[in-house]
Design a protein that fits this description.
The chain is an alpha+beta fold. The chain has a single domain, classed as Cytidine Deaminase, domain 2. The chain is 25% helix and 23% strand. The protein starts with a strand and ends in a 22-residue tail after the last strand. Strands 1-6-5-4-2-3 form a six-stranded mixed sheet, with helices on both faces. The protein is globular and about 60 Å long.
């Protein structure tokens, strides 16, 4: 995986600092009564809009949704066909110490990869926790090499 890291949020450009702060704030809006692992995300769209999301757990565990997918799905629903330029993701917990920047799960990587692929332009990923080091990945493809593509699921044109 190709990424670089910075030691502090102040080392990021202003727009990325803002995204990280919004993702951190969204941790407070997470519904995580079972895991006490609070994740927030903020997506910057090409049109300048910022869409936020937080993880949403459910007692029927597979029914919950990660912050990254909440934000990406909301962005796609509210602004269809507007490319997602950047996503910041942050996490915290009151049960354990979050050691480093949190990375998306496999399902979120796949969802973000499909958006990146369909929009035809990279989506920068900025990973953080409450403070400290931040990882920056230039494109989702770097998080998910050899990704599954839905291209094989498309119907052939009938002649």
């Amino acid at each position: 995986m190709h990424y670089y890291e910075v030691d502090d949020i102040a080392m990021l450009p202003e727009d990325e600092q803002n995204l990280v702060e919004l993702a951190r704030e969204m941790c407070d809006k997470a519904y995580a009564p079972y895991s006490a692992f609070y994740v927030g995300a903020a997506v910057l769209l090409e049109n300048g809009e910022i869409i936020k999301g937080s993880n949403q757990e459910n007692g029927a565990y597979p029914s919950g949704l990660c912050a990254e997918r909440v934000a990406a799905f909301a962005a796609s629903a509210m602004f269809p066909n507007v490319p997602m330029k950047k996503i910041a993701i942050s996490a915290r917990s009151n049960r354990m110490q979050v050691e480093g920047p949190v990375s998306p799960c496999g399902a979120c990587r796949q969802v973000l990869m499909e958006y990146e692929s369909s929009q035809g332009s990279p989506m920068k990923i900025i990973l953080s926790k409450e403070d400290g080091k931040i990882y920056i990945i230039s494109k989702v493809e770097d998080l998910l090499p050899l990704s599954f593509s839905g291209n094989g699921l498309k119907r052939k044109k009938q002649t």
